[in-house]
Design goal:
This protein is mostly helical. The chain has 3 helices and no strands. The termini are far apart.
Length: 55
């Protein structure tokens, strides 16, 4: 399956930028989420932790 896709992808000029770009976006997203969670206040974390039990 992947050999089939790779065979056609090699014929397209400029295809090598897409994997690099997608990996950069992937890593940037998780770094931003990590920074957001690490800067979150402890009270907000406790509030979110108890949310499913509030009902």
């Amino acid at each position: 399956m992947f050999k089939f896709i790779k065979q056609y992808a090699e014929k397209i000029d400029g295809i090598e930028i897409y994997p690099i770009l997608s990996q950069i976006i992937f890593i940037a997203f998780f770094v931003l989420v990590l920074v957001y969670v690490s800067k979150m206040k402890k009270t907000r974390i406790d509030e979110m932790k108890k949310m499913p039990l509030d009902q």
